[in-house]
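Please go through the sequence line and token line underneath and see whether the fold suits the sequence. See right below:
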Amino acid sequence: MSGPTLTFLGGVREIGGNKILLRDGPDQILFDFGPSFSPRFEEFYVDFLQPRSTSPVKDLLEFDLLPRVEGLYSAEALADADLRYRPPEIHAVFVSHAHADHAGYLRLLDPEIPVHVGRGTRRLLAAIEGSGTVMKYGEHAWHLFEDRRPVRVGNLEVVPFPVDHSIPFAYGFLVRTSEGTVVYTGDFRHHGPRAADTQAFFEAAAEERPAALLIEGTRAGPDPRRNLSELGVRRGVDAVLERSTNLALACTYPRDLDRLRTLRDAAVASGRELLVSTRTAHLLQEVAPVFPGGPLPVAGGTDGVVVYARKKKRFFKWEAPFLDDAIPAEEVRKRGAHYLLAIDLMHFPELIDLRPPKGSPFVHSMSEPFSEDDVDDRVLHNWIDHFGLEFHQMHASGHASGPELLELVRSVDPSTVYPIHTEHPEAFRAAGPRVRLPELGTPYPVAP
């Protein structure tokens, strides 16, 4: 195949795991490199059963959970794998955003391969890595791009555009090749606080008259969820807090900083303060200086945000700035009506000390479970039922709805559409004959 090609090394008929290889003559660039959320991964690895740190690539290759590509992985990550080490043959990796399914396997890549990220994404990755989590991204030659400013890699030109998503600093890309423009959306939504960014990206994509559109489709196909906006979540939380005089609890993703801001604003409006973990406080503090779209609440620097003092035997150095003023369980229990506690499933044992009165509101501000037999969801409801909490589901998805996806495809009007990051790529066939369902590892010409 003589012209530029696209090869999908992940993200095919699955949510997450995007790994897209673009070749144009001697130039090769990769977009995203993270694990899949596919049930296939959990057929072999779950909870504490994980690939060995001494041979991660070998263990993942055993079950075809990584692409078998030479000139990609570091010698250390390959260890004694049956894939031989070769010096890097990929000239750049572009990361669309900091969610694990797009960036979680960066640590496996050869450190000589340049990794291109937005300035905010780099700061966010460093904050995540530095806050005591198991997530590590490895050593790389980091290259920081600017919004809408072209990046040249050989004869390829990559233009990053900010988009709205449930984590800040998310990007889509226009990639100008020798035979037309490729548009890669990354993950995006059309109903969040930065919806105007998403709209501007798709308008720029349409102007390119692209040869190919690589579009995520997380919510394509059957989707019973409400299409709430961030404002809709705020109104729902306001109503819940208005009715309650007890401690209120909310479960959300700690990296959904828009949601944390929504919860803080709702808490303050109801005469409460938002209680967050030290890890969330650290993340807010690190990202606040570069957060797009308005001020971000910071513990110790913004009214209405305080830190919850979990009982721990050992504290990390990065937690120290938050410990002196942290609020212990005893005070929270006494003054429950004064607080909205942001809690995640890992910290549910705190409820044993907090003892919220029966009927206290619990706002689940995360995605609904993918299936009825979701283990985490069953455990969550066991705790809620045990303490007699009042459950409320309120979440603004990080992804565009099915109808929005089809409308955007029509507005861009590409020559070919490749649905990725979806379990239902066939749902895009409603957009017409230009839709092509990609197969894993098959090269496709950019120009049809």
Summary: The domain at 5-222+398-445 is CATH 3.60.15.10 (Metallo-beta-lactamase; Chain A). The longest strand covers residues 156-163. The mean pLDDT is 93.
